[in-house]
Write a structure and sequence with these properties.
This protein is mainly alpha-helical and about 475 residues long. The chain has helices at about 1-20, 35-60, 75-80, 90-110, 115-135, 160-180, 195-215, 220-230, 255-260, 270-280, 285-290, 330-345, 350-365, 370-380, 390-405, 410-420, 460-465, and strands spanning about 65, 140, 155, 240, 270, 290, 320, 325-330, 425-430, 440. The protein has a single domain, classed as Serine Threonine Protein Phosphatase 5, Tetratricopeptide repeat. The protein has 17 helices and ten strands. The protein has a two-stranded antiparallel sheet. The chain has a two-stranded antiparallel sheet with strand order 2-3. The chain starts with a helix and ends in a 21-residue tail after the last helix.
Length: about 475
């Protein structure tokens, strides 16, 4: 624990310095810090981005929460009116914080012949780039993080980035397997405590995730997916960052900002998810949301502030995130849903039901509930019984609806990515929705026309103003490369 607390000190120190840097700065070269502390800092920086701004953004866009009528802090998100400076801080956190720190860990691991730590840092790097390109689309990759050697890196096509990430994962796995040196960072690895078997499983699961993102593109790779399924070496425990305490500046980042500092007034339940849970008597409702001040679960349609002008946030259900809630990167539930979708698409659905059921059960476990509660829902005649179908999309929809539920306040931005990729839940006009089967509605007050919803966000102006090789998007309705359904 002493080492962990020391690492957190470094996290705060490095983060405070990096806030003024851009993606080409390398803050690590002036000093020689133990790479184990820097690894924890990188993991903490990723958790801050994923569990903070991306949890808030993803919560709105995946319709887990909406803006209450008594507040306006995030109306720009809820009305799809995000501007070019919306993500300045997030971009800086992930580039100047997480990725720069990982570069340092990779360099030191290479120098020391520590193939285990090299693998850990490579996988976190791949995960971070995946999130960045899924959110922004084309970003610097092959020319990124070169410091003064290239201060205006070109962007790479997202599909090329994905291929590059898979190559990097495979190279790091091969480097470790050919010379298996166990990582010496120990408990400073806040995710898997430097257990290399867990990290190999994480690498395989991350590759499966990347391949499934390609499902609707010309890069879909059935043989690569089936090889992973045959090997069957995926994560068996959730990958999360859980070094949080019920204390100021030490709490879960969503809780720290939205609930503690801003007073719990900006995020209330959206009917899109809450009504689905209610209609299906899903016990996860109480794990995902808190009741209102009257002890009942209550929500509004996405963005529908105008019909509740006299009410405040406490009149509605709010996210059930506490100070010590972990930030999750990959869960066993998500892994099983990935496998279920893969089996439907590339193996005639054989075994998909088992993986689907396991996905629901493990979601209950991640929420701290008894997995046995899930079997009632997934059993014969249950609300979530998996029904095999010769139509791929009909079968996939069942998986994706449950995946959407399982990601609520576990990995909100992933819920947004997956709904963009598969178009499940379907987005309909308010009044045409059927929340009992899972539907999104176009947010009331949307500034977009024709029933459009966001597919991406703008590049931060802090980056486009410095790098002429990054051309700003014309609209947040532009699609990232894999969004082709």
């Amino acid at each position: 624990m002493k080492n962990i607390l020391t690492a957190l000190f470094f996290l705060l120190l490095i983060t405070s310095c990096e806030g003024k840097l851009d993606i080409n700065d390398n803050p690590n070269t002036p000093v020689n810090v133990d790479k184990s502390f820097v690894l924890t800092a990188a993991q903490g920086s990723l958790a801050t981005g994923m569990g903070g701004q991306l949890a808030n953004l993803g919560g709105f866009l995946a319709q887990y929460h909406t803006q209450p009528p008594s507040a306006s802090q995030y109306l720009n998100i809820d009305t799809y009116n995000m501007n070019i400076d919306f993500s300045d801080r997030l971009w800086n956190e992930l580039w100047a914080g997480c990725l720069n720190d990982l570069n340092y860990v990779l360099e030191k691991s290479e120098e020391e012949g520590d193939t285990g730590s090299f693998l850990i840092a490579s996988l976190i790097r791949a995960y971070t780039f995946q999130v960045l390109t899924d959110l922004y689309g084309d970003i610097p990759f092959s020319e990124a993080l070169l410091g003064s050697a290239n201060i205006t890196p070109n962007v790479d096509f997202g599909g090329d980035i994905y291929n590059g990430l898979i190559d990097e994962i495979n190279a790091a796995l091969s480097k470790y397997n050919n010379n298996p040196v166990n990582s010496n960072v120990g408990a400073q690895d806040a995710i898997y405590n430097a257990n290399m078997d867990d990290w190999i499983k994480f690498g395989n699961t991350l590759k499966l995730k990347l391949y499934m993102r390609m499902a609707y593109t010309s890069q879909a790779n059935a043989s690569a997916v089936n090889a992973l399924l045959l090997d069957n070496n995926f994560i068996t425990s959730d990958a999360s960052f859980a070094l949080y305490e019920d204390a100021e500046n030490k709490a879960n980042p969503f809780y720290d900002v939205q609930i503690d500092r801003l007073g719990d007034v900006n995020n209330i339940a959206s009917n899109s998810l809450l009504q689905f849970l209610e209609a299906n008597a899903d016990p996860r409702e109480a794990a995902i949301y808190r009741t209102n001040d009257d002890g009942i679960f209550r929500a509004i349609d996405q963005g529908d502030r105008g019909n509740y002008t006299t009410e405040v946030a406490s009149d509605f259900s709010r996210p059930n995130v506490i100070a010590t809630t972990p930030v999750y990167f990959l869960t066993v539930s998500e892994s099983n849903f990935l496998q279920a979708e893969a089996l439907i698409r590339y193996s005639n659905g054989t075994g998909a039901k088992s993986k689907y059921d396991a996905g629901v059960s493990n979601s209950f476990i991640t929420y701290g509930l008894d997995a046995g509660l899930a079997t009632t829902l997934t059993g014969v005649g249950g609300a979530y019984e998996y029904v095999a179908s010769p139509d791929i999309e009909t079968a996939v929809r069942q998986v994706m609806i449950q995946k959407w539920v399982s990601l609520a306040y576990v990995n909100n931005i992933e819920g947004f990515f997956e709904s963009n990729r598969t178009l499940y839940p379907e987005t309909v006009s308010l009044g045409d929705e059927d929340y009992t089967i899972g539907n999104f509605v176009v947010s009331v007050g949307s500034v977009l026309t024709g029933g459009q919803t966001p597919n991406t966000i703008f590049y931060p102006d802090t980056e486009t103003s410095k790098n002429p090789n990054i051309t700003q998007k014309t609209s947040i309705t532009e699609k990232v490369w894999w969004d082709q359904k």
